[in-house]
Amino acid sequence: MKQQDSKSKPRPWYQRWIRNTFDICVSNREELINELRQSQKNAIISSESLSMIEGVMQVDNLQVRDIMIPRANIRFIHLDDSYHDILATVMDAGHSRYPVFDADRDDVEGILLAKDLLNYVAKEGNFDIDDILRPASFVPESQNLNTLLSQFRNSRNHMAIVVDEYSGTSGVVTIEDVLEQIVGDIDDEHDDVDDKKNILDQGDGRYTVKANTEIEEFNEYFECNMSVGKFDTIGGLVSQKAGKIPKQGEEVMLTPFKFKVLRSDGRKIQLLEINKVDGA
Fold it and tell me: Count of CB atoms within 10 A of residue 198's CB?
């Protein structure tokens, strides 16, 4: 076997683990994925395990901007909101964490945990949001997800404020958002259809679209007329156009949109980014 140059970049941990576990010899990422898929076909690992391993590998190449919740979809709390106003927001939204802003939404002062409001039940007169406000963690849109996951683990934070190049608030990202790239959607008792939006406007001309979004829903959202025929979902339509299951990073044109694959496990597309092409 060819020895690795001691000065070369170390292999990612998942490659070392897989090499030690399955005793396979691979020289690049593509060969590794092919070996894993063959192992699944041979019933050495389950399809669920294969999907998660591929999800871990793809996290290396995704950035925060690819999965963040855009600013327009965030439930903010104002620093001067009363206890009852905050409680009403929490009961309506059902989330566990909320960014708290002061002058405007680019001025995030901290994070409020819904559970901390319990300390003031029947003692609302003693409420002071400053006493329970947690420090906010800020990350750039361009940060890689594997770095963000390590940051979440080391800091024990579960939410970060995403900022743009001008330090303005462009969204939020949670540890759940990162883990969903590995294991798929995580639904809890507070999730409903509206919370799990299939199409998210990133606010800069980009949209992230779950590949299982029905074509009729896509057409209604974008006021377009994508063909509804053999396939029911936008992921199926993109795969048909590509003539295969596109890999992460591949682009497919379906006029007037350009689709970029953000996540694919080799059996189906899972997440897409789209841009509307000018003049198309």
Answer: 17
At 257, list the tokens. 């949109």
pLDDT (tens digit per residue) in 130-183? 999 999 999 999 999 989 988 998 888 899 999 998 889 999 999 988 888 777
Short-list 115, 118, 111, CA closest to 79: 111
Six token digits for residue 140: 């750039």
Fold of 197-280: 3.30.465
Give domain limits for the chain: 13-45, 67-193, 197-280
CATH for 67-193, options being 3.10.580.10, 3.30.390.30, 3.40.1000.70, 3.40.50.300: 3.10.580.10
Q: What is the pLDDT of residues 84-143, one digit of tens each?
A: 999 999 999 889 999 999 989 999 999 999 999 999 998 999 999 999 999 999 999 999
- Angle at which helix 47-59 crosses helix 13-22, to 10 degrees, equals 150
Q: CB neighbours of 87 closer than 8 A, spacing ≥ 6?
A: 117
Q: What is the DSSP letter of 81?
A: -
The pTM of the full predicted model, rounded to 2 decimals, is 0.66
Fold equal for 67-193 and 197-280: no
- Of residues 82, 84, 61, 49, the one with CA closest to residue 12: 61
Q: Write phi, then psi, for 121 (nearest 5 degrees).
A: -65, 125
Euclidean distance between CA atoms 132 and 127, whole angstroms: 9
Question: Any idea what DSSP says for residue 141?
Answer: T
